[in-house]
TrEMBL record, chain A:
Alphabetical list of CDD domains matching this protein: ETF_beta
Protein name (database record): Electron transfer flavoprotein, subunit beta
An MF annotation (GO) of this entry: electron transfer activity
Sequence ranges assigned to domain Electron transfer flavoprotein alpha/beta-subunit N-terminal in this UniProt record: 23-212
InterPro entries named in the record: ETF_a/b_N, ETF_b, ETF_beta_N, Rossmann-like_a/b/a_fold
TrEMBL record, chain B:
Keywords, sorted A to Z: Electron transport, FAD, Flavoprotein, Transport
Any GO MF annotation of the entry: electron transfer activity
Designated name of the protein: Electron transfer flavoprotein alpha subunit apoprotein
Similarity section: Belongs to the ETF alpha-subunit/FixB family.
Organismal lineage: Archaea, Methanobacteriati, Methanobacteriota, Stenosarchaea group, Halobacteria
CDD domains named in the record: ETF_alpha
Domain Electron transfer flavoprotein alpha/beta-subunit N-terminal, chain residue ranges per copy: 4-185
Gene Ontology annotations of biological process type: fatty acid beta-oxidation using acyl-CoA dehydrogenase
Amino acid sequence: MHTVVLTKGVPDFREGQVSFDENGHLERGKTPTVMNPNDQFALEAALQTRVRHGGHVTLMSMGPPGYKDVLREGMASVYADDLYLISDREMAAADTWATSITLSAAIEKLGTPDLVFAGFKTADGETGHTGPQTCWCLDMPIITHVVSLDVDEEAGTLRAKRLVEGDIEEIETVEASFPAFVVADPEFVPSYRSASHRLTLKDLRAETRERAENFEDHLTIWDHADINVDPDYIGLDGSPTIVSSVDPIPKAPAEREATMVSPTSREEMTEVLEAMQPLAAGATGTAEATGDD
Amino acid sequence: MTDVLAVTEHRRGSLRDVSFEVVTAGRELADATGGDLHLAVISGDVDKFAEQVNCDGVDQIHTVAYGEEFNHDVYTQAVEALYDDLSPSIVLMPNSVNGLDYAPAVANGLSLPLVTDVVDFEWDGALTATREMYGSKVETTIEVDAERVAVTIRGGEWPAANGTGDAEVTAFDADIDEGAIGSRVTGFEEVGSGDVDISDAEVLVSVGRGIEEEENLELVEELADALGATLSSSRPIVDAGWLPKNRQVGQSGKVVTPKIYLAVGISGAVQHVAGMKGSETIIAINTDPNAPIFDIADYGIVGDLFDVVPELVDEFQ
Ligand SMILES: Cc1cc2nc3c(=O)[nH]c(=O)nc-3n(C[C@H](O)[C@H](O)[C@@H](O)COP(=O)(O)OP(=O)(O)OC[C@H]3O[C@@H](n4cnc5c(N)ncnc54)[C@H](O)[C@@H]3O)c2cc1C
Ligand SMILES: Cc1cc2nc3c(=O)[nH]c(=O)nc-3n(C[C@H](O)[C@H](O)[C@H](O)COP(=O)(O)OP(=O)(O)OC[C@H]3O[C@@H](n4cnc5c(N)ncnc54)[C@H](O)[C@@H]3O)c2cc1C
């Protein structure tokens, strides 16, 4: 089993990490880059197939040279056998169309893998189309929003559960043959039913953590000539969508005039309690259980 | 030359709300381009769906009867075939789970640029679209450097179309290639429909990231018990797996309108507020006097929930 996982570096949007200037522009220099959080689920899915069926997990990213730390992070935090960074000045300012052409060319250069995994959306661009577009270039069947996965290696098929939104949550089971493309949903949960799988998982994680310390030994960097793509089709030149401005979201206008209350003032709190009292009392008759899930 | 093709969506035998929203958005664009609005109805009971979505403003409806439910390759092939036949300038699709599944393939297949999750747009010979990014912290303007474009629109941003239209309904032979269908749905289950419907509750105690740890949920559970209230939450609590998905209030959760909404340690992000701003009385507890939740609250308790909640429990027990 050969699986390729796609990951992108994104600004670290955790509280306190991200820095915007007064015009609402992200200050990239001041904001550290991390692996796109959603890509962890793609990696988890690949690790599951590695544990259950053996083989090989390749982690790949297109981006500036600094993205090699993103690859290291993926290797250290989840798992990877080897790392590929596709990096070239010609690829700067690529939109998803150009990105998908570049990524698919790099994947094809590796030979056709059995499975390719992508995350659902990045924390910055948030378009959600790079995965499906890369899949289109590779001409594989696609299953998106995958929350659990079973592979039948002998039959060369996979069966995935796909989360679809609705008034209530619904899950579809979808089947496809290799080679196939899977977009992992943030709700993806790997499953290791047997004790031997859990043992393998433990060993693999320990092994990859060690490998991550010398990650550059496992890293290959390719430019556009390596993957044989025409510079006219990648980067800004190959990108029909252009981001022309980034503006802060106007804050929603205040819709209510709140009475501000200090919890230490008995008088002020009494007003709030009175507002709650009649309903709280009235509700006791029809109280719903506050579900213990 | 400047027509708009909008694609409807259905699940389990019913059209989804977004089908009526693409009509409104599509009409808006067609008015700007000076073209016609074509609707595509693909799979399932297409005749019934076509009749239901035949609203004011629709010029033509094209039905593709093939299969019952959504399939990636059927939708991709059908939309591409319709595009070849109608040659629209804009293909409009919903930014739903299924919309995001086939729209990228359609865009690549037709060599169209794609802009997803659009909340606003303008047409001036080419499309300029607005979308949110960075976790909805900024709004970005995307200029499309092409005459034709594929777009997915965010649900809930355009009002649903209504009225009874008189669009002509035609069955379209998309000539679906059976052999090119790469995946098949083999099963279906409903999950998380759940024990409780928070949208029915009269009193909601809603908890956010201010609670810090899963063990601390006990505190708000106690308060909910004391008030005879139902427990709900912001998204991070559900993402962390501390409460099931059916407890989530907001844009990607449920819309609630209780008599009392008590927000405990919730900042009041736009996506959260979208789900609860219709509540009758809103009370918020937050340590941060500038938290946006206070802009839509009737009472704002500026304080530490770990002090205030036990006090309230004592009061109501
Ligand atoms: C402000 C802004 C707005 C943009 N808007 C658009 C737009 O409307 N249309 C458009 O075509 N482009 C747009 N782009 C460009 C786009 O962000 C990048 O070109 C593209 O590389 C990644 O798109 P994304 O971040 O949306 O990823 P998504 O499509 O959300 O990513 C999904 C998954 O694809 C994989 N992936 C994505 N990028 C890479 C990569 N570089 N290397 C490896 N794997 C990857 C990951 O697994 C990821 O989880 C925009 C960029 C910016 C900065
Ligand atoms: C496409 C999209 C859809 C989304 N859909 C939803 C949705 O449906 N529902 C939803 O809720 N969110 C949704 N979000 C996420 C949303 O943007 C916010 O991230 C989220 O609502 C924040 O949750 P929170 O208020 O619990 O956490 P935070 O924003 O972290 O706020 C925690 C608050 O607790 C306060 N606090 C901390 N400690 C204490 C204390 N001891 N006592 C009192 N107060 C304290 C802090 O001051 C802060 O205001 C969505 C986001 C996106 C991008």
